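Minutes, project check-in
Item: structure for the 391-residue chain
Input as provided by the requester:
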Amino acid sequence: MAPPQGPRAPLEFGGPLGAAALLLLLPATMFHLLLAARSGPARLLGPPASLPGLEALWSPRALLLWLSWLGLQAALYLLPARKVAEGQELKDKSRLRYPINGFQALVLTALLVGLGVSAGLPLGALPEMLLPLAFVATLTAFIFSLFLYMKAQVAPVSALAPGGNSGNPIYDFFLGRELNPRICFFDFKYFCELRPGLIGWVLINLALLVKEAELRGSPSLAMWLVNGFQLLYVGDALWHEEAVLTTMDITHDGFGFMLAFGDIAWVPFTYSLQAQFLLRHPQPLGLPMASAICLINGLETISTATGRKLLVSGWWGMVRHPNYLGDLIMALAWSLPCGVSHLLPYFYLLYFTALLVHREARDERQCLQKYGLAWQEYCRRVPYRIMPYIY
């Protein structure tokens, strides 16, 4: 007799067929963007000018470099942390413990890279290896996701995620069956969420800046801005690493291909698109770069049955998800240094808009279940979801 299954959530992403399509579409999109950024036309829409052969994708050197990178970040994860935080309460009423040392990993990585460059490490050669690195990262994501799927077969029901428990192997492989897969105290999802991909994104950006300096004598202002904006974002995320413990990725979603590929492949190789574009398509900086989000004090609240509060003034009195609005403003600021002659650098803004609209719909369902009538009252008083007077 098969073991009893936990409660099953409604299927997302179009169910098994949608999951199967995304298994192919996500890597294909990433490689399309990499090829478009390095091509002359830099077209977001339409096929690339040429397709790379296997010799351009496979490189033992890239594999060694990628595995070394993962090993380094895993070693930094295991170092003593300035703090150990507890996660949200699980189905079995337990709480997992997480090391808060992501910012420490970023600083130590920067020191090691600096020492390497001073010793002659050719950081400017990294941009030429992006295709084979992305290829081995994609292979890693598929193999790792298969390991996670097999591991989940022997996990207790209480350890399964609500969404990756459909019984369809393709859908569950994509979404992830187990909520917090671990070996001893090494949490795979938490490690991948903010470490190898996010810090790798910063390193790729820096390598592109160094390469531009080698080609043109000095980095452009646009390249400096993109590097600065995105370094600030990554540094802030790692400094406030504990906040990730309350996100849907950690508390709700299983760890399967969707998050594994997104964390270790999509983030570093797609989020660095603006810097990739600027390396081969230098742009005069003619648009002002300014965006700011103000924090409002003395917020009016509505009490809920759980004793928590819902914010209904300040930014939260204008839209129900002002943090998403801030993300979109930030995404626009990252793209504007690339000018307006090409659509390609604005892919992140377009993609992030679609992602946040989808995520907002998931948030709405969970908030209604969690807060009940208080959420309905909040929606009545704050009718706009992300963009005031638009959506």
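Outcome recorded: Confidence is low (pLDDT under 50) at residues 1-7, 287-297, 299-312.
No further action items on this chain.
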